[in-house]
Amino acid sequence: ETSCVKGGKPFFIKSGTMLRGWRVRASNPPSPLPPPSFHPAGSPVSIATSAPAPAASKLTGRPAMPRCVRIAVVGDVHDDWDLEEDAKALHFLQADLVLFTGDFGNENVHLVKNIANLNLPKAVILGNHDSWYTSQFSQKKADRVQLQLECLGEQHVGYHRLDFPLLKLSIVGGHPFSCGGNRMFRERLLSARYGVHDMDGSARKIFEAALGMPEGHSLVLLAHNGPTVQD
After folding, report:
1. Is residue 228 a part of any domain in this protein?
2. pTM for this predicted structure
């Protein structure tokens, strides 16, 4: 539980509750996290986090997986995001990793840019509302889907793997821009950017992204819809 203050009186909330409009009192407030350290471009990408390196196992000599990893999941914001207060809440939770499941708004580039700039280890998958108006990439200018992808860079894990070595964790992204179900959504976008033309090709792309995961890592599949990673 966490001690908070409302109207001058302390009260308690369960860990993991998102806070907005509350004055939070923490005995050990989190220090600012260092910016993610990106390795040279390529797929997959490894990102160092602020978590301490795990001690080596006495039995195998290999780094042991951290006993506990705190992950915050944020989904379907749909423009309802306070850039200052919600960022404070995420820092207060002291998550080792934040996973964003998409639908930030109807191609809300400004919000996605601010999410991308959060000084937190994170991975993102874009949802169907993030490609709400754009059915194919523009040949003349950067459309709002392209701008979102450029803002996120390697943090967007659609058909891609992002490794977090200090957490012994790998994130593999599912089908970007998905609206669920057994049909492809935004086929032209997927074909142009990822070379994916059907659901079988989508499944292969996800499988290929998971291949070569570092030994000892746990795997998290990040998708906009469920229950399958195809969604």
Report:
1. no
2. 0.72
Residue showing tokens 């997959």: 44
132 and 43 belong to one structural domain: yes
Residues 150 and 189 in one domain: yes
Beta strands in the chain (DSSP E): 2-6, 9-13, 23-24, 37-38, 45-48, 71-74, 97-100, 122-124, 161-164, 169-173, 218-222
Q: Are residues 187 and 92 in the same domain?
A: yes
Q: Which domain holds residue 217?
A: 33-222
Contacts of 12 (CB under 8 A, 6+ apart): 1, 2, 3, 4
User: Which portions of the chain are predicted below pLDDT 70?
Assistant: 1-67, 226-231
Cα Rg, the chain, nearest whole Å: 19
Q: What is the mean pLDDT of the chain?
A: 77
Token representation of residue 33: 């996290």
The DSSP call for residue 7 is T
Does residue 231 sit within a domain? Answer: no
Pair of tokens at residue 117: 């700039």
Sign of CA dihedral 15, 46, 109, 231: negative
Looking at the structure of the chain, the number of domains it has is: 2
Q: Facing residues of 176 across strands?
A: none
- Spatial CB neighbours of 15, under 8 Å, sequence gap ≥ 6: 1, 2, 93
